[in-house]
Amino acid sequence: MYRFIASDLDGTLLDEHHAVNALTAQTLQQLEAQGLRFALATGRHYLDVKGIRDALGISAYLISSNGARVHDPDNRLIHSSNLDPAIVRQIAQPEFAAGTILNFYLDDAWLIDQPYQYLLDLHADSGLHYQIEALHQHDGAGVGKVLYIADHAHLLTVEAKLHQALGDSAYITFSADNCLEVMAPGVSKGHALRLVLDELGISTADCLAFGDGQNDIELLQTAGHPRVMANAHPRLASQLPQAATVASNVESGVALHLRQLFAL
Q1: pLDDT at res. 124
Q2: Which residues form the catalytic set?
Q3: What is the pLDDT of residue 125?
Q4: Which CATH class is domain 85-183?
């Protein structure tokens, strides 16, 4: 029995333009009318995801910043986890941040250390804008996520440095090849999904989940019915060899799979 659907956004529920298409919105609205509940699980900022939920036209829990923040359908904050400020200050220094575009996600702000027009274009629909600050001088308080943007080869070296320096004191993952993210230990989309399901009294066995990236591993491992996108990162697919594969996000794979599964 399926009672709950959790989905990643970029590379999964959203199309190749990082937008909601009509088929996907219609499909989720039809399922909501049948009593299904939803969570949108993403590395994006909460303020950004609210606009995507509006475009979908459904009531959904929002798991943002890879699980560092969880809001209910009425925008009530039900979970928050920040990095240790000392760690934020440490990893904002050039030893780690040189050669990257550095971002901090706070409750009501998105901070960045330099202009980057592509990010503004990506968030045009939600209207979310960054603030430029000297992040190496930030006190580190209230930061739910640190994001480094650079080419993948460089980020692999940053990832290795972070693991060596931080060990188990942070959760480190890629949301895309050019996006390396750091959250507090224990944070993940999977942990956040369990919090939501517990609040609703729904078993993980009744949960269907979709993902494509390395930051979706815990989400899909938590759900009783994981689905891997055809365009998924090889690391994700290798971690979940038992999971069924659905068509890519370009083909509206989530919507097509749901329409077949629920005979819409």
Answers
A1: 67
A2: 8
A3: 66
A4: alpha beta
